[in-house]
Amino acid sequence: MIKDILVGFGIVFVLIILALFGMPFAGNAKADEPLRFDAIYPVYKIQSGAISCSAVAIETPGLEQTVLLTAAHCIDKSKEGGRVADADNFITEFKVLKISNNTDLAAIIVPDKDFQPKKALIAQTLIAEEGDDVVVVGYPYGLSRITTKGQLGRKITTMTPLNNVEDFMLASPNLDVGNSGGGLFQKNGDHWELIGIASMKGPANFTNFFTTLSNIHKFVG
């Protein structure tokens, strides 16, 4: 009898603990859902020749095949395509759709129509201001998908990895080898939007370079 009562109290105690401490975790998980679906899941690792980079699947209304944005210097121009992977798992192959002549941007397309990943929404306007929180998602060193938070910096004009003069947006999230082609995202209400593509690492905070939203709009058309 006493044993049954103690067991009953134990169950009630566990339920109370779960009610008190489990709810915040559930709330946090729910709060993170837009970040996962809008910014993290659309980013993949790509391999073009010997080059390992990142790429972002984007919304392309009316097109059945998946298009991904990446950095132009991530594409081996001697190759017609490459591979798309999630961490170490090969998923599918891609073909080069187009490469910009004056910005560090490229678009690749996956012929396999069964490849239907979560897709990032390209922002209509840049609502994030200097100092506002942003996130970068990519595959540093080609290992795994990493999300890095930081702040948006200012816009500057400088030389690209392809020796073109281009406008860039600076931001503090760190970039490493393999991050190129990954996405820079702003929060707009309850969702996240793509505002830049990782291009090159700078020497200090707020000097990591991302293609501007206006150049993405011009490139995508």
Automatic annotation (TrEMBL):
GO terms under biological process: proteolysis
Protein name: Trypsin-like serine protease
InterPro entries: Peptidase_S1_PA, Peptidase_S1C
Pfam families in the cross-refs: Trypsin_2
GO molecular function, one term: serine-type endopeptidase activity
SUPFAM superfamilies according to UniProt: Trypsin-like serine proteases
